[in-house]
Amino acid sequence: MPVTVKTFATWGEAAAALSSERDARYLGGGTLVMRALNEGDVSVATVVRATDRALTHLDVTGSRITLGAGVTFARILSERELGFLHPVAGSIGGPAVRNMGTVGGNLFAPAPFGDFTVALLALDATVALQGGYGARDTPIEEFLAGRGRMPAGLVLSVSFQRPSSAEAFRYRKIARIKPKGGSVVTLAAHVASSGGRAIGVRIALGAMAATAVRAKGAERALEGRALDAANIDAAVAAVTEGTSPSDDSLASAWYRREVVGVHLRRLLNGQP
């Protein structure tokens, strides 16, 4: 089946094309769309591209960080101000994937992929969208929940508050093929501290549902409490609440449920 490629100079034109053509897909780095085309996905008849440099804009100097949807993981690894995200970006694929894969594209990666999105969920990111309905900012949790149902549009950027300290953001990926394999389980957490108590706790999990999800039971077990053994035990006991992992070639759903608590404990204890 022939595929039409349309390239636009501005993100506005690209967003309009996506909104007007039901069988159009946006091509950023191509790690998802080109794979689908190569595998014979006949639902894609039009590929939309944009050369607008605004999509690769970075703002990393202030307390709120903005990453353009077209920013690659290799670019993130080159930015000193984004050092807390280097373990995340470095865990995604090999050099070729990191050179092409983008922040915006990762939002659409199916489990067991989408590790960067897990980190963004833990950081309570906001997704800037442009479509036929106009422009809007959407909390990432809402975006992920409605990802397959929302009107077609273009992701412009994601933004989030810089972690309050180097220790506040934590990330851990379990993969059978390191460093570039699909995830058995991915965990990210933002745990700030005030007066010896955890505040603003957000724990996100990858490969534990169709999209990245928050471990809200574990969050409740820690919020406002000391990060001690007893409270970590309570968080571990609650971490699988609301999850629905699948069986795949990397791990069974049973195995994922069994090991996610082990790795949450290690993450919260700061173990390598």
TrEMBL record:
PROSITE patterns: FAD_PCMH. Pfam families: CO_deh_flav_C, FAD_binding_5. One of its GO terms (molecular function) is FAD binding. Residues 1-165 form the FAD-binding PCMH-type domain. InterPro entries: CO_DH_flav_C, CO_DH_flav_C_dom_sf, Diverse_Substr_Oxidored, FAD-bd_PCMH, FAD-bd_PCMH-like_sf, FAD-bd_PCMH_sub2, Mopterin_DH_FAD-bd. It comes from the Bacteria. Keywords: FAD, Flavoprotein, Oxidoreductase. This is CO or xanthine dehydrogenase, FAD-binding subunit. The lineage of its organism: Bacteria, Pseudomonadati, Pseudomonadota, Alphaproteobacteria, Hyphomicrobiales.
